[in-house]
Every structure is written in structure tokens, then in C-alpha cells.
Amino acid sequence: MRKLTSIDEFVGFYDRLVTDRPVGVPTIVIPAGTCGQASGANDVIRVAKRELLSKELSDSIHLRITGCHGFCEMEPSILIEPRGTFYPKVKLKDMPRIIDAVSNDDVVEDLLWLDPETGKPVERQQDIPFFRQQVRTIISRSEKVDPIRIFNYIENGGYQGLASVLNRGNPGWVVEEVKASELRGRGGAGFPTGLKWEMLAAQRNGNGKFLVCNAHEGDPGAYMDRSVLEGNPHSIIEGMLIGSYATGATGGVVYVGDEYPLAIKHLIIALRQARELGLLGENILGTGFSFDINVVKGAGAFVCGEETALMRSVEGKMGEPRQRPPFPTEKGIEGKPTVINNVETWANIPVIMEIGAKKYKQIGTKGNSGTKIFSLVGKIKNTGLVEVPMGTTISEIVYEIGGGSIDKAAIKAVQTGGPSGGCIPASMFDLPIDYDSLTQAGSIMGSGGMVVMDEGTCMVDIAKYYMNFLKSESCGKCYTCRKGTQRMYEILEDITEGCGTLEHLDLLEELAHVVADTTMCGLGQTASNSVLSTLRYFHEEYTEHIIDKRCRAGLCKDLVGAPCQSR
Amino acid sequence: MIKLTINGLGVSVEEGTTILEAAKFLGIPIPTLCHKEGLSPYGACRLCVVEIGEGERARLVSSCTYPAEEGLKVRTASSRVLRARKMILELYLASCPQSKTIQDLAAAHNVRQQRFRQEFEDCIMCGLCVRMCKEQMMAGAIGFRGRGQDRSIGTPFDVKSEECRLCGGCMFICPACQLRCTYTEPEKAICGACANLSPPCIEKEQFDDMMCYMDPCVACEIKED
Predict the structure, then answer these.
(1) Alpha helices, DSSP H, located in A315-447
(2) Which residues of A touch B117 (CB under 8 A)?
């Protein structure tokens, strides 16, 4: 690859890529993120390649390997462009038929997705309710891009945002634009990104400033950051480049857990390609602007997703949160001003630069602009990644996109925000999903995990599960977090074992409030949410466990002889 | 100079002063366990929480780590603070009932009950010994390991550290481990517990001219028995 030395050269390069792009050639798109590979996408790719070669179709049919498209329940799946045909749960023996159909511009009817309501096959991806109801500004990009090919990203409009920002030559404008977009941090707390950038830009520090991409996703059942990083690593790099230009940051760090090997691999390849093309490193596109990004791998402690603990981990110390203030924008990594944003936040930056803050603001609701990716998991028909505008109601996500309950049992609650979040009962499913409504309901947005529970789930057991997670993932520095989570787990265990008393409930609530009040970092302050929200909305389940010694879901084994006798 | 009010009393302090120091200047008592002058503030024991902010934004912060801010309104003994402090002490009593320090604090705060399952632990992970070893003794022989419920203090790989000079500073500073020296079960009465180091008083020969900080200490007498 030859280095691009000016913005004009980049624009010329883009034009050449676009004009060289073959038009109308059918393309087989195979999503092969970690989820796809786990369900056998690699074999599908192998068979597809072999078929295309043996039938000498490799010129007339193209193949593209991408990251996850979101519909993980149906993987390994195949998408045929430009028709938009979607084949779910592809079996290897069906591959020859699919490829024959593609070469004849035809469709294999019996392999299509069946609408469970009408029983009729649906051909095109965008007609499937799961996709139709979403606004996929971020995930849809992963469909178009092979994450290890930078040309793929550029020909789809990638790095245009960076080029236009460099062309304009006004960092202050970028900060204003991000502020005007009202983008809020996607990591969970929802702090306005533009404001954070403004604080960093205002810091006068000759020794350098840092930008960090927080890709340390620890919530059980949440994997949207992984998918974005795997499927479209260049969008993160572009977002960070724009951020660096706007704030004057000199060094970038992507902090990612080592449990995401594919994401790390794709990211490292993407960084190398961007450097080779002159889009990263010294003197980017000949403008004199320099910025480079390093990958720092975390060892998997949940608490290292907390920003002050993350910074210590990047410095090579034990991941332990510290007191804020001073905030990272004043004193961050190695004492230098630092801005930490989530993967999804960074992925939104190129979108804002492309469509403009005004248009971006129209997505979502007032004060909660843009889209948010949720990983919809649990007792739900359509497991997968769902991207919706802020302000969408829970029932739309659960019933219309998610397709409702997996079997006959009715859906009882949704747990948002991972272990730090709370459970929202089905009676409140009209709640619009945004930062403020969720907080009011006793939960949090978190990074976007959404676990659906049906009547086969015991809410006391759920609270116990999350408390077990937290008691081993708390860093242990604050006494109330370390001991408080242990004690809450102990009480919940007593209740599920039938040794609970009503006094236990008062003690549990009292303790939960104190833990939330007296801990230093976000982990401890939200650790009680699962207990407090289940106590608030499912109090009768607790009292049933204590007084009637009965678990209505039949899950608390010590309360029941056999599930059939418990009712 | 930064002006703030603590319990309605105005005070001006230099930048970088913590709320705890400012309160001390005014003579307002705030209980602490993990704080010692001369060691860097850590914020582990949470006993020193105070309430700042107003209305919806009111919250509790640990006064030993929170820096004084211009116009800050601090309440050191609001009902929210006292409720939290009592619960924290109840948690301490449930885990470390033998510690004289904790007993005294609990009595002073009128904690009359302990509703959790009783435990007998030797360490509250306040980290005073770790900071003492590193910051005052310039050794850094011990440190924290693990996280959450598995967090512990000790030397790397539990091997006797070459950095350790058996100074006993860790034991001197420990607010809880005196309980181990005067344990209810005599056979477990060994000091040096908070650090898991070989206790100096056990190896009497090496300990010849050293001063034992744990006074009264029964470990040596038990050894002789």
C-alpha cells in the first residue's frame, strides 16, 4: 500500500475505488463474528469458497466475510446482495443450492426465513420484522464492510468524516458539532460526549493528552461492543482520529479484554492498514496532524471497565478505582488529561460527521439523541443485537423485534444494564428506553445488555445470581462494596434456601441503600440495583419464599421437592 | 485559598486539602479506620463518609479522599451519614468482632445489634500496612492480591519477601490484627497476621533487639509455653 500524502490524494483514491467497484455483481455476505463462528460460519465460508471455485463462479459471484449483522439466533446466516435475500441457519449441504440460485438470480424458497405468524417465507432481510423495526445506523455498516480490508471501509464512505474535518481545519467546530448532536456516552452513565471533549480541549498540557476507547465489556450477556469492534474496527479508529483532532490529544489507547481475541485481531490489522495508508501515525494525509493508537489488553476484571480503574490498568497497576475529582479530563493516564469513551460512542462520531449534528439530533428523542445497540438475550425468540432510536419502548423491542417469549410462558421482566442494572416488570414495558427513564425506574441504561425473563425465572434467584457475580468482581477496595455484596448474597442465599425471615428483607433493603450510598465507584453505587428493583417490583416473590416457603418458578431447589410438587 | 462550609461553619483551606483535614482544622470529629497522617489517603473503610451537595444531587463521599472545593457544603453528621456509618460499623462487627478499635467505634456510635452471620476475620483490608510498608518503610514487601471476596494482603506468591526487614511497621499500624494476638482461641494467637509474614516475635532469635509494638502481646508467652 502506498501512503496517501494529501487530502486530495485520499479523495482521488476514494473516487478510484468507487469507480472500480463492480456494479450489480451478486455478493454472498457471510457474517462471521465470534457469534457466527461459534454457530459454524467458518464451515459455511469454507464450503462457499469451494463451491464458487469448483463451479468457476468466483468472477460472477463475490463473497464477503463480515462481522455480526445482529440476528445471532439465526446464525450461521447468509445475505445475498443486491437482492437482499436472507437465509437463516444455513446448513452446509444447502450451500450448493444457494449458490446455484444466486448464479441464476433465483431464490431457494424452502430455505428462507418463515414468519411464525403467517407461516409464509420472507425473502428480503429488510422485510423480516426483526430488521424492519430497527434503525441500524451503526450495525448496518458492518454488513457492507469486511473488517480486515480497509479499501472496503473507504469505498463505503469511510474516513470521509476525517477528511472533511481535516479539510475544514477547525478543531473547535468539531467539538461544537459533537456538542450540538447531543450525543451522550454509550457506556452507561450518559455523560454528554461533546462536553467531555470540550473539557479536554480546554486543558493546556504540553506533555500530551490521551484518548481512550473503552472496549472492556464485562456484563454477562452483553456483546455489542465486541460486535462493533469485530465488524467495523475502522469506524472506531476514524472516530478516535476525529476526537484527537478536535481535542488536541496526542495518544490513543483501545482498552480491550483479552477474552475478545477476534476483536483484537481485527483491530490490530485495521490499525496496521490505517498506518500503511497514512491515515494514522505521523503527519496524517500530509496535514501535519499526528495521532497514533495502541491496543492495551485487559485481563478480564469487570471493574476495569470503570474509567479510573481502567486508567490504572493501562498504567500497568492493579485495577482499582480512585476518587473523582480529579476527573480523568484533568488528571488521567500518567497524570495527563484523558477522555474515555465507549466503543459505541466512538462509532457514532463518523456518523455525526457524515450526516451532520442537525440530522443526527432528529434520531431519538430530545436529550437522548441517536440510536443505541442492545444485546437482546434470555427467554426471547430472536436473540441478537438490536439497534433502535433512543426513546423506543421496551415492549417494541421485546415483542415486535424480539418476537416475544420463546415458549408459552409469559414474559415477566427485562433486566437492563447488566449486573449493575435492575429488573423492569412487564407492567412497565411502555417505558421509553433512554438514560433518564431507566434511572427513574430503578435500573440503568448500562452498556446495553437486555436480558428477558419469563415466568420460569425466579426473581430472588436472579438477584442472587447478579450478587454472586458482583461479590467476586468487586475490586474489594471499599469495605461496603466488598463486604456488602457478600452479605447481600448471604441473605439472598438464606431466602432461597428457605431460611429467610421478614427481618431479613428489611436488613437487605437497608444494606442495599447503604452500599449504594457509601461506595466510591460506579460498580458499588449500582451494585444494589438488582436487589432494590426486585424488592420494589417483585416483593411478593420474596415474601412467598419466606412465608410460604415456595418458589413460583420452581427454581429454588431447597424450597421444593420436585418442580411438579411445588405448585 | 478555598472556602467551604462544614456543618454550617465556614473555613478557608489551601488547595489540595481534603474534607477530613478541613474538618479536623475546625475540630469536627469524623471517625476513620484506614486513614493515618503521613500515609496517602486511600478511602477503603468508608467510615469517614460525609454528605455533600444539596437536594437531588446530595451524595455521600469519603472525606479522606475528597478534595475541598470552592463553595462546598459538607454535613458530617446528617441522618443519612449516621445511618450509613451505623450500618458500616455493623458490618465491621459482623466480621471482626474481636478488634478493640472496632468495638470502641461501634460503642461510640451506639451500635447495639449485629444482624449478620457472625464471622471472625483478622483483616479488614484497610491497606494501612501496605501503605506503611511502601510509603514510610520504603520497602513495598506486601501488597493486595485478588479482588472481591478473594482479596488478600501478602507478599508475592506468599514467599518470604526479601524486601521485608521485619520492622513490624505493618503490625504497629494495623487497626484489627491486635485481635489476633489476643484471640479468643489461644492456639490461633499469632501476630503478624495482617501481613501473613513470618511474625518477628515467633522467631525469637532474630527478634532480639527489636521492639514489639503489639502491647500487650501474648504471642511470645504462648511460644514459651
Answers:
(1) 343-355, 357-362, 394-395, 435-440
(2) 490
If one counts the domains in chain A, the total is 4
* Whether residue A194 is found in the same domain as residue A281: yes
Distance CA A317, CA A485 (A): 24
- Predicted pLDDT of residue B174: 81
* Assigned C-alpha cell, A31: 457474517
Architecture category of domain B128-224 in CATH: 2-Layer Sandwich (3.30)
Q: Which residues of B touch A484 (CB under 8 A)?
A: 91
Per-residue pLDDT tens over the stretch A377-417:
999 999 999 999 999 999 999 999 999 998 888 999 999 99
d(CA A239, CA A194) in angstroms, rounded, equals 13
Contact B151 A476 (CB under 8 A): yes
Domain boundary among A309, A332, A360: A360
Q: How does pLDDT run across A519-567, given as a tens digit for each residue?
A: 999 999 999 999 999 999 999 999 999 999 999 998 998 887 544 444 4
Cβ–Cβ under 8 Å, residues B155 and B142: yes
**CATH number reported for the structural domain that contains residue A380 in this entry:** 3.10.20.600
Please indicate, yes or no, whether residues A442 and A474 belong to a single structural domain of this protein. no
Q: For residue A480, give the nearest of B88, B116, B146 by CB distance.
A: B88
Vertex A502: Cα angle to A498 and A508 (nearest 5): 90
Same domain, A353 and A206: yes
Range of the domain at A380: 371-454
Q: Do domains B2-108 and B128-224 have the same CATH topology?
A: no
Listed by number, the residues of chain A in 365-394 with a beta carbon closer than 8 Å to a beta carbon of chain B are none
Element spanning B101, H or E: helix B100-108
> What would the pLDDT profile of A192-217 be if each residue is shown by its tens digit?
999 999 999 999 877 899 999 999 99
Give the mutation candidate from A483, A487, A513, A525 for the B interface (greatest B CB count, under 10 A). A483
**pLDDT, tens only, A48-57:** 999 999 999 9
For B2-108, CATH number?
A: 3.10.20.740
Distance from the Cα of B92 to chain A's closest Cα (Å) equals: 9
Tell me the whole-structure pTM to 2 decimals: 0.91
Q: Across chain A, what does the average pLDDT equal?
A: 93
Interface confidence (ipTM) of the complex? 0.91
Model pLDDT, residue B195: 38
